[in-house]
Design a protein that fits this description.
The chain has an 8-stranded antiparallel β-sheet with strand order 1-2-3-4-5-6-7-8. Helix 2 crosses helix 3 and helix 4 runs antiparallel to helix 5. The protein is built from 12 helices and 17 strands. It is globular. It is α/β, with parallel strands linked by helices.
Length: about 425
């Protein structure tokens, strides 16, 4: 680590800081990967290996909490990580910090950090902080000076251009990620291998209307090459892949496996700073029951997480949701999920169910028949995620209902906070 400090100027610059190489679930914030940092009297700013700002935290009494911070995503959204007062956040989402988003989502936990003056001020003023530090840098070693100049050049306008190219490469903005990338704080490299989804459920507000279509091998290879070039040096901090869009499991087994292998090869395991490897993708009831690629998936490095939208095991509820599958198939898919989780230590199938006040009485009864009654004992794998149908409407009653289901479930059970990329 190189540390450069200007005399009496009130700032500190650290280059090539080696943070944690693994993402631990801790009740205090830790920085991961290799990054650079500027600390002034008013803020702490962290930058990735390309010089792009990734995290920011205010200092002083006006900042909401010393353990809360801002993060800028690859898609150029600013997220705010809240402690939630440390009251039930971990139990609700499986993480100690609640990501609060600047766009409508299905969170029940509330919070409006982007209305706070200190938060808005830091989002707007961080380029000025960088410029002021650079203007006071004076005579610095050439390597340090060059890095500061690169950071200053990575302006909000450059970030918007980068995010635009990011979306173009993968065929459009990713409107929803599975819940499982929470394990890596959604730090991943996306690769689209199939567009659209098999179903067009009428309740769904996050998936695109595209007809399901696999991409050609050449298209996927070109996409991966362009994405690796775009990430550049920052690939050293990436150890996870998302295969998109909404039902990569429905792609032919050979395409799925070859795409995952190529993506992991692009991450260059020998030079990656972060430990472990992770693969994330969506599946559906139909694709889960039809897939025969699990033995091959088990041979991939690291862990594979496949998230399945079950929604309900009650036929009346499925019909109300406009989901074109039968309750019998949902129950069969749930059974298949348990069988795979028992058979493959490095594959975890997770599932989503909906929550709402207006659902038929049979919905929650059918869910409990699966997540409690069908299992002889508590299981450590196969997380269940509940997703409220009403977006951006915090509710004490719904949280009470969720905690009731969580207590009864024999599977790890959490809220699904829908994030985009």
């Amino acid at each position: 680590m190189t540390v450069t400090e200007a005399d009496n100027s009130g700032w500190l610059f650290k280059a090539a800081v080696h943070g944690s190489a693994s993402r631990e679930k801790l009740s205090y914030p830790i920085a991961c990967g290799i990054y650079s940092e500027i600390e002034t009297d008013s803020a702490i700013l962290r930058f990735d290996l390309n010089g792009d700002i990734r995290q920011a935290r205010g200092k002083g009494s006006s900042w909401p909490h010393p353990h809360e911070w801002l993060k800028r995503t690859r898609g150029n959204d600013w997220l705010y990580y809240s402690t939630g007062g440390y009251t039930g956040v971990y139990e609700a989402i499986g993480e100690y910090y609640l990501p609060q988003l600047p766009y409508p989502t299905n969170s029940l936990l509330g919070g409006t950090p982007f209305t706070l003056p200190a938060v808005r001020r830091l989002i707007d003023s961080w380029p000025e902080i960088v410029a002021e530090v650079c203007s006071q840098a004076g005579e610095l070693p050439e390597e340090t000076s060059t890095l500061l100049e690169k950071i200053e050049q990575r302006t909000p306008a450059v970030h918007r251009q980068w995010a635009g190219e990011f979306a173009r490469i993968i065929g459009g903005r990713i409107s929803v990620l599975p819940p499982d990338p929470r394990h890596v704080d959604y730090e991943l490299l996306p690769l689209t291998i199939a567009r659209g989804c098999l179903y067009k459920c009428t309740f769904c507000r996050v998936k695109n209307p595209a007809v399901f279509e696999e991409l050609k091998d050449t298209e996927i290879a070109d996409q991966l090459h362009r994405m690796a070039v775009l990430y550049g040096k920052e690939l050293r901090n990436i150890n996870s892949i998302f295969l998109g869009e909404h039902d990569a499991l429905a792609a032919q087994g050979n395409l799925l496996i070859s795409s995952a292998q190529a993506a992991f090869q692009a991450l260059d395991q020998a030079n990656c700073y972060m430990t472990g490897r992770n693969l994330f993708l969506f599946g559906s009831v139909t694709s889960l029951l039809a897939a025969d690629c699990f033995a091959e998936l088990a041979l991939l490095p690291g862990l594979t997480y496949i998230n399945i939208g079950l929604e309900s095991a009650d036929q009346e509820t499925l019909d109300l949701l406009g989901k074109p599958v039968s309750a019998a198939l949902v129950r069969e898919a749930f059974s298949r999920m348990q069988q795979i989780n028992r058979s493959y230590p490095n594959i975890e199938i997770t599932a989503n169910f909906v929550m709402a006040d207006h659902l038929p009485e049979g919905h929650y009864r059918s869910v409990l028949e699966l997540i409690r009654d069908s299992l002889p004992r508590p299981q450590s794998k196969g997380s269940i995620y509940f997703s409220p149908l009403a977006f951006d409407q915090p509710s004490r009653a719904k949280m009470f209902a969720f905690h009731h289901l969580k207590r009864l479930s024999r599977l790890p059970t959490y809220l699904y906070i829908i994030q985009r990329l």
